[in-house]
Amino acid sequence: MKVLVAVKRLVDYSVKVRVKADHSGVDLAGVKMSLNPFDEIAVEEAVRLKEKGSATEIVVVTIGDKSCQDSLRTALALGADRAIHIETSLETQPLGVAQALKALVERESPELVILGKQAIDDDCNQTGQMLSALLGWPQGTFISKLTVKNKEIEVIREVDGGLETLQMPLPAVLTTDLRLNEPRYATLPNIMKAKQKPLEILTAEALGVDLSPHLKTLSVSEPPGRKAGIKVETVDQLIDKLRNEAKVI
Amino acid sequence: MALLLIAEHEKDTLSPATLATLTAAKEFSVPIHVVVMGSSVKKVADDAASHEGVEKVWCVEDPALSYPIAEQMTKTLVELGKSYEFILAPSTTFGKNLLPRIAALLGVAQLSDVIKIDDNKTFVRPIYAGNVLATVRSDDPIKVMTIRPTAFDRAAPGASKASIEAYAFKKPEQPTATFVKLEQSKSTRPELTSASIIVSGGRGLQNKENFTLIEQLADKLGAAIGASRAAVDAGFVPNDYQVGQTGKVVAPSLYIAIGISGAIQHLAGMKDSKVIVAINKDPDAPIFQLADYGLVGDLFTLVPELISKIGK
Ligand SMILES: Cc1cc2nc3c(=O)[nH]c(=O)nc-3n(C[C@H](O)[C@H](O)[C@H](O)COP(=O)(O)OP(=O)(O)OC[C@H]3O[C@@H](n4cnc5c(N)ncnc54)[C@H](O)[C@@H]3O)c2cc1C
Ligand SMILES: Nc1ncnc2c1ncn2[C@@H]1O[C@H](COP(=O)(O)O)[C@@H](O)[C@H]1O
Q: Which residues of A173-205 are buried (b: 16+ CB within 10 A; e: fewer)?
């Protein structure tokens, strides 16, 4: 089984981003960039499938500018076999990404596509669902467990009401939740080896897709801050404040 | 042109998140139609029809809809949705799982987690774990969006009576997932996203046994229980207790964070609470920067004291 994994390079999860003074966007100058944590989990799951003998080849893909090749090299170091970079200078948005991934799926014919459930910069949580709909393949989103059984898979999904189990035929689209696995670290020898693995560069035009954004960000701002609170010394004081000042108990 | 609201329902009524989405829908000043899908949803349709502002309720019934599988619902909603100008759903795992599919097949973008409607094409939504608010414009012919339920009050049922019409189920042509089971975490406590008080525990609780301290305090207060990702990962509580960027977003009148450091991903899910209390032994824990009342000390002495003194 061939597995396609979509990865996005974005601001590291530990960075608290700042809004630019003119409110036109977020200041990314000099900020640490990483692989989206959910996509790291997606790569890890594919690698585990290969180690178990269910997957035969892992192809990773990203859509973005040249700097995104970092994230492809990271994914290759984690165990992907080959990488595809769909190069664009445009800001990527879920619909365009899903359309490009659909075109790539038609070219590569994987049996499983794994994405992160959410990119932690735009927090959209859309691309996997869009891809599933465009392909007409079943979807398993926000999964915390995957079991492959011949031409069928079973997934456990993290939903508001608890844990949901679904079964579906392949090919299918999956999106990862945080508890699916704990990704490994890339070892130095694997980072070196990754440099030799194939990385193909494509354009959106070659795939026949239009990546132009549909949504325009007019401005960004920081949310209203909370007024500074106080420290209380004792449990009695806390209870008194909650009862008589905040009146919430 | 009108607005289509995709209803999420529980037993015989609209879900609380759907009621918040209805309040958001009213800001568009266009007729509101609600679509209810299920195997037998007459009572839900009646509930939807009784809400003020709803003009029409579409009722889609089929045995294939006995459990909400997104692929089963897509074709019908795309057919129905294409004659609307706005399509809304609550930003719950139900809405997030379903709505991007409709948008993609209509060839339009989706906006996630809308918290404010500036006008019929301009919306505000959080990005970067809520550290930034983006004002975004959509020029697509159909505006498809999920609404963050904590940002809008829940609509109350009124005396009005909208018309209810059947809409034919369109069976998907392609393979779909099938439902196997749902493991619900059973609890007699209030539901996390609609509770007025939440007691939340983190890694500081150390283990599952100690987490009973959180439960005891919650029971004293009639509160729901929440948790940080660390507490869920460590197995103290089930996954659906997680509050944060990738868990549930809550905004109770009182949120008590115990043994939680206050990582940005956790704050993303609770910083709109009216009153925040933090109990943590580390005076420099980031949670204190937004707590209205902070209590520095060992939770294993402070929480038992709180439980014994706070009695209802
Ligand atoms: C992509 C991504 C998404 C994430 N999404 C979420 C999310 O949705 N929700 C979420 O919560 N996290 C999320 N996280 C994880 C987040 O970054 C933090 O790791 C997590 O919130 C930490 O949980 P914690 O505060 O319980 O643990 P810690 O950070 O370890 O804090 C434990 C606290 O307990 C205190 N403590 C310890 N012992 C005691 C004691 N005896 N008495 C009093 N205080 C004590 C310590 O001082 C410390 O402040 C996400 C991370 C990533 C990368
Ligand atoms: N530019 C991109 N290139 C490759 N994959 C992407 C890109 N944007 C989003 N994705 C994938 O889609 C997932 C969900 O993203 P989003 O819908 O933006 O929250 C991510 O975790 C990635 O797997």
A: bbbbbbbbbebeebeeeeeeebeebebeebebe
